[in-house]
């Protein structure tokens, strides 16, 4: 077989290497056996640890700290630890240095995103004396069920009894389902660590990647726009809470959609399979990752859960704030920007950040990759 000829796929790196063997993780069964099952084991173990810590401290928001940190652990396990432990005979840092450029982007991207989010959640949890209001609702639901709808009986129910029942149900009802979701979300970076030996590329590879530069640029641009949206949303929310106590934040990136941080999170996760696509180790199943993340954020644990809690909270706080929230809901979309946001300055700020990152990546590819004739 002639390995010097140009690969057929426009997304395969043009290097003098044999094609990926069928036993690697780029086929569907390989991804399931090499990623889903180990990921499920990893995330279940971490969820059990978080559950134990949460039960010990009586803080259900321990799972919020697990969400970003578990993904960082997952990408390092699959990208570095597992290949290193497979006996390739190299040191860890030497292994990382020799890793393909696209793999480094994914490894670094997940790490930066996860560490930033963990730090933000850590200080949010540390600054509260008790559980997040969303999780206090779980206790209220249990109390009402025990009181069988009678508010007077519900108030008289022992607090310890409520806590025991909540924690007895929490692992199977909350922590374990999220571990399953995390296992599927991690499919978005399945290519990490597995392409290096079969045809990945980095700045020192002797090959042409002309057909993949624009894919790398788009991937980096999407990642940068998503991360910028998350950072801006968190910083603007923090400042507004100090200056406008009791007011709903509706300016800045919060004028684009009601949940800009969730939109940013989705864009970040969408960028990882795009990076794998540019690295020549793409499988369509990798898009299950960002889609699983979107479904969870949009319909299960993020958007839906937050909106239910906010509606109840603002209704209790007063008619004025409740009416303001209903007005905001009618005016702005929850997740996807409406067509009129094309005229929103903050939309273009985020798009501009992504565009600058994409242009920078394209420039790096043009200026630092060595393009040679492999024939």
UniProtKB/TrEMBL annotation:
Q: Which InterPro entries match?
A: UstE-like
Record field: transmembrane: 170-194, 214-233
Q: What is this protein called?
A: Uncharacterized protein
Task: State the GO CC annotations.
Answer: membrane
- What are the UniProt keywords, alphabetically? Membrane, Transmembrane, Transmembrane helix
Segments forming a coiled coil: none
Region feature (Disordered):
1-21
- Cross-referenced PROSITE patterns, in alphabetical order? S5A_REDUCTASE (PS50244)
One short Pfam family name for this protein?
DUF1295
């Amino acid at each position: 077989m002639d390995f010097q000829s140009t690969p057929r796929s426009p997304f395969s790196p043009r290097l003098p290497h044999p094609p990926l063997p069928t036993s690697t993780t780029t086929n569907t069964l390989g991804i399931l056996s090499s990623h889903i099952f180990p990921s499920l084991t990893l995330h279940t173990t971490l969820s059990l640890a978080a559950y134990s810590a949460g039960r010990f401290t009586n803080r259900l928001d321990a799972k919020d700290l697990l969400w970003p940190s578990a993904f960082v652990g997952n990408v390092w396990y699959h990208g570095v630890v597992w290949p290193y432990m497979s006996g390739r005979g190299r040191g860890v840092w030497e292994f990382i240095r020799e890793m393909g450029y696209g793999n480094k982007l994914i490894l670094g991207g997940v790490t930066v995103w996860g560490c930033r989010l963990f730090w933000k959640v850590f200080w949010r949890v540390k600054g509260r004396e008790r559980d997040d209001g969303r999780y206090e609702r779980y206790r209220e639901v249990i109390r009402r069920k025990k009181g069988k709808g009678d508010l007077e009986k519900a108030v008289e129910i022992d607090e310890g009894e409520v806590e025991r029942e909540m924690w007895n149900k929490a692992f199977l009802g909350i922590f374990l389902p999220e571990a399953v979701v995390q296992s599927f979300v991690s499919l978005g970076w399945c290519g990490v660590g597995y392409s290096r030996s079969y045809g990945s590329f980095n700045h020192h590879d002797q090959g042409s990647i002309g057909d993949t530069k624009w894919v790398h640029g788009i991937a980096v641009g999407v990642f940068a726009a998503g991360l910028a949206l998350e950072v801006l949303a968190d910083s603007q929310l923090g400042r507004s809470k100090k200056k406008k106590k009791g007011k709903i934040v509706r300016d800045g990136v919060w004028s684009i959609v009601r949940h800009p941080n969730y939109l940013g999170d989705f864009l970040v996760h969408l960028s990882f399979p795009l990076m794998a696509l540019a690295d020549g180790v793409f499988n369509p199943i990798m898009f299950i990752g960002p889609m699983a993340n979107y479904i969870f954020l949009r319909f299960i644990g993020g958007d839906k859960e937050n909106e239910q809690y906010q509606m109840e909270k603002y209704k209790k706080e007063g008619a004025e704030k409740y009416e303001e929230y209903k007005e905001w809901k009618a005016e702005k979309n929850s997740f996807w920007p409406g067509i009129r946001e094309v005229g929103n300055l903050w939309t273009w700020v985020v798009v501009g950040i992504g565009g600058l990152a994409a242009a920078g990546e394209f420039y790096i590819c043009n200026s630092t990759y060595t393009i040679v004739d492999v024939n």
